Inverse folding.
């Protein structure tokens, strides 16, 4: 690596003959790259003021009030309470309770405890803006301050939100005396020396990513190192995924002649660690994914592992043990802290269709055959396991590799726990999501230009986080710097469609979703290319230039397949974004190897007062959420009145229908409601007193509409009938 401090000295003189001989290509290329990077940094990004007002702090535009944030259980016992907290008056009590209980820093009841949403938002947005200003992201100090205002405005007005680790961890170094929080930190990228170093504190370089993928080698040292790294990730609020196909099967041999334990044995170890380490030191459960490739000799045991444990839990419940998810029954069985997925290939799926045998092979010697199974029996085992307990899922190996932007750097082997982030081993992704309902105009059109402006702000903020965050291992820190993957997504799609009077299960609804996803994805890549113009493309872009541009063309060309039911202005905007993203990428490369995913957006959706999460429809018009730390919240969909007015109902009729929903938990049978409008209000779950719910194909078709416009994948629940 070239030492940045000596760049000017090196470039100012001629290379000696020995230097030319030893370093002709490497030195010259590196010097040009670093000089060009330094020159670009002087220009930086200009930031347009779209949302905030010049000379007015975003906080001052809002009306604030003091509230008590209290969460109680079903018996009325207080689980959490903080009095006199300051929140925007426009925020719901649900958003207040969630944000105060989950994200406010400091021990409750002490002077260190945050008391206002102002403190929380400023802690994060000021820190990111200051990092960006110090590191040359902005053309002028005025642009940096505009960026701070825009990002702050978007966060406090619930237009978007970062993933939970950012709210947990970001900005504590600036906010609180560092001596009180000293301790061993994780690894980070030192911009001055261009080296990966270990942080001396946990807060100067906070953990900001929610999604991690880690590798594991077939040695005891690697197996135990993964256990350590996972524990640290859970501690600071993140989830992780690992493919276990690298571990030799129990059918193979150890070098000393004995039999190995196999991946399932070590999976129990990882599960036990996850069960005792709460996410972010809070009440959230740890989250992890483990995958196994369908050629692995232990694949049958992997498929059957979780269903067997599920049946053990059922037996304990029958004997009187608590069947609650956190109760004694499930606490006594294995694999309850992880998702399991089988990596299936096209060849395997063809073998299923043709009812052929499927022969596995050894890990240590791929030329040696392992056990042979009937492909259909393995697939039936997967299906029955999914029906029994939700696991194992499947990940489609060949499709994933086909849309992989960095093929030259290695394959994608696994995903994060919710499966939306898929990338190279030992990599991380920080997430953010936009609230789609905020971009709905009064006339029923979607505000494309403001949406694009928000995409630019959040992608830039996420990019700034990459080099200022810490990571659990050196390899993850290194790859995060070399590839810089990001995961921008959205929430409230279900509410947006309902507000427009469009059924979730409709061609028009899917077309709208596809176009909006395309605009977000392709404009995010265009912004990434603009950052690359100024700061340089991600380090390994050159090696992956051709496969990445090919994938970008796949994304752009998919716009042409958005159904004709899509409004012309949205399809045209998506096409312009696609053309711009590809053209800018050809000229400047991309700063980020990936830019988008569709995450589940659980907690942050509540922070943004979304009625629906991620790409989901509403689960029910009236929902009851059991909180991880105890307590229950009743959530009534607030989009229904808007949808009814869009469909032509008068206000008195709307009031009567809403009262009926609140009383019966269903809209079916409501006064004044026309039968042809019922599909607009269909939800994932069938209400207790109703008959309607979305068909499972509605979920799958919506995923198909959005997937061509994502770097990663979609975290999505597909509700199916019992049979």
């Amino acid at each position: 690596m070239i030492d940045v401090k000596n760049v000017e000295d090196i470039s100012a003189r001629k290379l000696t003959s020995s230097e030319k001989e030893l370093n002709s290509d490497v030195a010259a290329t590196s010097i040009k790259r670093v000089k060009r990077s330094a020159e670009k940094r002087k220009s930086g990004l200009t930031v347009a003021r779209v949302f905030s007002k010049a000379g007015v702090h975003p906080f001052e535009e809002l009306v604030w009030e003091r509230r008590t944030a209290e969460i109680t259980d079903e018996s009325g016992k207080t689980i959490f309470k903080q009095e006199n907290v300051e929140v925007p008056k426009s925020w719901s009590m649900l958003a207040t309770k969630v944000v105060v209980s989950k994200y406010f820093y400091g021990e409750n009841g002490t002077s260190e405890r945050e008391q206002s949403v102002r403190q929380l938002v400023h802690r994060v947005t000021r820190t990111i803006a200051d990092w960006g200003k110090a590191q040359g992201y902005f053309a002028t100090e005025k642009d940096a301050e505009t960026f701070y205002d825009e990002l702050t405005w978007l966060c406090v007005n619930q237009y978007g939100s970062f993933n939970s680790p950012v709210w947990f961890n970001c900005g504590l170094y600036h906010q609180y005396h560092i001596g009180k929080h000293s301790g061993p930190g994780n690894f980070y990228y030192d911009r001055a020396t261009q080296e990966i170093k270990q942080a001396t504190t946990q807060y100067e370089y906070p953990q900001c990513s929610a999604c991690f993928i880690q590798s594991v080698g077939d040695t005891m040292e690697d197996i135990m190192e993964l256990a350590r790294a996972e524990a640290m990730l859970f501690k600071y609020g993140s989830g992780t995924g690992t493919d276990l196909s690298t571990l030799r099967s129990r059918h193979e041999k150890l070098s000393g002649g004995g039999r190995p334990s196999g991946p399932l044995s070590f999976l129990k170890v990882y599960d036990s660690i996850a069960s005792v380490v709460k996410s972010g030191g809070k009440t959230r459960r740890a989250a992890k994914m483990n995958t196994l490739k369908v050629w692995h000799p232990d694949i049958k045991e992997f498929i059957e592992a979780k269903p067997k444990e599920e049946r053990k839990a059922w037996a304990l419940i029958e004997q009187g043990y608590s069947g609650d998810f956190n109760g004694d029954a499930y606490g006594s069985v294995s694999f309850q802290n992880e998702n399991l997925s089988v990596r299936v290939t096209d060849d395997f799926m063809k073998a299923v269709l043709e009812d052929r045998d499927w022969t596995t092979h050894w890990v240590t010697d791929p030329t040696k055959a392992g056990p042979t199974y009937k492909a259909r029996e393995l697939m039936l085992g997967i299906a029955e396991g999914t029906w029994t307990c939700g696991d194992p899922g499947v990940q489609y190996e060949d499709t994933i590799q086909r849309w992989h932007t960095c093929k030259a750097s290695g394959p994608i082997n696994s995903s994060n726990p919710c499966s939306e982030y898929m990338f190279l081993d030992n990599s991380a992704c920080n997430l953010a999501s936009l609230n789609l309902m905020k971009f709905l105009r009064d006339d029923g059109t979607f505000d494309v230009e403001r949406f694009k402006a928000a995409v630019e702000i959040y992608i830039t903020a996420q990019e700034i986080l990459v080099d200022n965050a810490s990571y659990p291992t050196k390899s993850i820190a290194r790859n995060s710097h070399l590839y810089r993957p990001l995961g921008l997504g959205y929430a409230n799609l279900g509410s947006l469609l309902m507000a427009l009077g469009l059924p979730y299960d409709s061609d028009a609804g899917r077309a709208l979703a596809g176009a909006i996803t395309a605009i977000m994805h392709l404009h995010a890549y265009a912004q990434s290319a603009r950052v690359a113009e100024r700061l340089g493309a991600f380090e390994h872009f050159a090696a992956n230039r051709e496969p990445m541009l090919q994938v970008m063309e796949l994304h752009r060309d998919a716009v042409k397949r958005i159904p004709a039911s899509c409004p012309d202005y949205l399809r045209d905007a998506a096409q312009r974004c696609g053309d711009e993203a590809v053209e800018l990428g050809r000229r400047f490369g991309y700063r980020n190897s990936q830019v988008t995913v569709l995450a589940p957006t659980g907690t942050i959706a509540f922070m943004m007062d979304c009625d629906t999460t991620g790409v989901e429809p509403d689960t029910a018009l009236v929902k009851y959420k059991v909180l991880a730390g105890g307590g229950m919240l009743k959530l009534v969909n607030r989009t229904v009145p808007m949808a009814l007015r869009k469909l032509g109902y008068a206000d008195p009729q709307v009031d009567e229908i809403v009262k009926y929903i609140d009383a019966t938990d269903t809209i079916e049978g409501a006064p004044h409601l026309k039968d042809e409008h019922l599909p607009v209000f269909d939800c994932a779950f069938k209400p207790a007193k109703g008959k309607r719910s979305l068909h499972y194909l509605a979920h799958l078709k919506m995923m198909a509409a959005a997937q061509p416009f994502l770097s990663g994948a979609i975290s999505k629940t597909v509700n199916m009938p019992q049979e």
Summary: Residues 1-42, 177-184 have pLDDT under 50 and may be disordered. The chain is about 45% helix and 15% strand.
